[in-house]
Write a structure and sequence with these properties.
about 150 residues; alpha/beta; 8-stranded mixed β-sheet; 2 helices; 8 strands
Length: about 150
């Protein structure tokens, strides 16, 4: 092979590698194996980005992010694994993993035969429950009963 042809092939190989790198950075797998749902919640205490999302106790995704709205509610962006079908009348709720543990978002499945698609919003949600506040209220009630 002539010297000019070898140089041309090398430049072609470098160009192909650059195209692959650019494609990987800007045009990679858009869905990342997940689709997005949104739940509007009044209190998200303890819920954080990357918190787990469970459906019937099975890990089906994670929290991508949270955005505070003008009405002081929070839009929670949920990433759900592709192939997991969520009935359109489902709800979300925030639960504690343990008394002192972190929080996770549970999807409470509805009975609809229609399913949520990418970008859909949950119509119903249950706020985070402040366990320490509940304990304090219970302790106060016990003190009053003990008088």
């Amino acid at each position: 092979m002539a010297k000019g042809a070898r140089i041309f092939v090398r430049y072609l190989a470098v160009l192909a590698a650059l195209v692959l790198v650019v494609a990987a950075i800007f045009g990679g797998n858009e869905s990342d194996g997940h689709y997005t749902l949104v739940s509007n919640i009044k209190r998200t205490d303890g819920l954080t980005p990357k918190s787990r999302v469970l459906l019937s106790g099975v890990d089906v995704g994670y929290i991508e992010g949270m955005t505070l709205r003008a009405d002081y509610t929070v839009d929670v962006e949920i990433k759900v694994k592709d192939g997991v079908k969520i009935p359109s009348d489902s709800a979300t709720a925030i639960y504690s993993e343990s008394l002192m543990g972190g929080k996770y978002l549970a999807i409470l499945p509805g009975g609809s035969e229609e399913y949520m698609g990418d970008g859909a919003h949950f119509d119903y949600s249950q706020n985070s429950i402040d366990i320490m506040n509940l304990i304090s209220i219970g302790a106060d009630a016990l003190k009053k009963d003990g008088k």
